[in-house]
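Q: What structure does this chain adopt?
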Amino acid sequence: MLPGVPHGYRDRMADSVRVVWCPALLGYSFGPGHPMSPLRLDVTIALARALGVLQREGVRMVDVEPASEEELLTVHDAGYLAAVRAASSEGRHDLSRGLGTEDDPVFAGMHDAAARIVTGSLAGARAVWAGETAHAVNIAGGMHHAMPGSAAGFCVYNDAAVAIRGLLDDGAERVAYVDVDAHHGDGVERVFWDDPRVLTISVHESGRTLFPGTGHPSDVGGAGAEGTVVNVALPAGTGDAGWLRAVDAVVEPVVRAFGPDVLVSQHGCDAHRRDPLAHLAVSVDGQRHVAERLHVLAHDVSDGRWLALGGGGYDLFDVVPRVWAHLIAIAAHADIDPATPIPDGWQRTVETLSGVPAPTTMTDGADLSYRPWSRGYNPDDDLDRAVRATRQAVFPYHGLDPLND
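A:
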């Protein structure tokens, strides 16, 4: 049992976690050679199954159908939905709406595939809010760059934003969204920029060195919602010690002060040192540790109501499946020992698909020690300056001391 998770939590529930999965989710595919390969989802589910996680009592696998137009319109505009449908059925490009670009090429069935991801996150959020399950996980979700009127960064519809909107519509008064993808969670931030009911926190590589070039510490939210937008822009090259220090120094105190009814988190694993698109140096172990901490945080501040989403991550066979198998296991209250060997059958499958050796254990063997913020600030350290800029920008809005809390 994780520290902070009460014994007997929600014993009335039949499900400990709902895991969104069906083969149709593999239809979200931009084609051969595109970094966002659906194989990463397939091998993740296969690994979680090989490790016995999906067979655990209380783990329920749920199928999903495409979201309705009414549900999509809670975030996206009607003209954009029409453009996606035209791209999906006719192959029509609309570069003004990000459709047909190198990042977001059009493909047959694009609308249904993207809308199915939305349903996974929205239904998971609603099941958590209704008390039907403790947690929900949608590894296909986390499409955080999609804007109300355009696609961007491999993202067509913004499932996270639709899920949060659904929670608010169903009666949640405060929702916290924590995004630890290497890229700034710009789409979710944009949707809720002026909404004081939604806290968006993004811990990402600085926009000076990585797409989408946004997410500055000085961006704190619109009029009347100041302090509900929180951005930690990390220097390129930040590893476990700095990444964990940043999460400890910003994410936990702000979420606790905000006091959300539900925690939604995005676990893009492109912060890993092997990721081909970003420039951070975080390990599988570091990302597992943050997933554990967010799980505990959900129990501490939101009565356990937690929706966990996937996101970026482009080392398809070594990093993504291990990080997200850990995430599913944590949500199932069935943590995997990092030293656990990976089953031979899964290794053989991955080696056949990739042509390179598969990982053999669930760990990178990383040292996760770091210096807590309470031990002092180093003005000569790039990471510390980035963290301090965020704390100074947003902590006063939450009644927190940027220097000492």
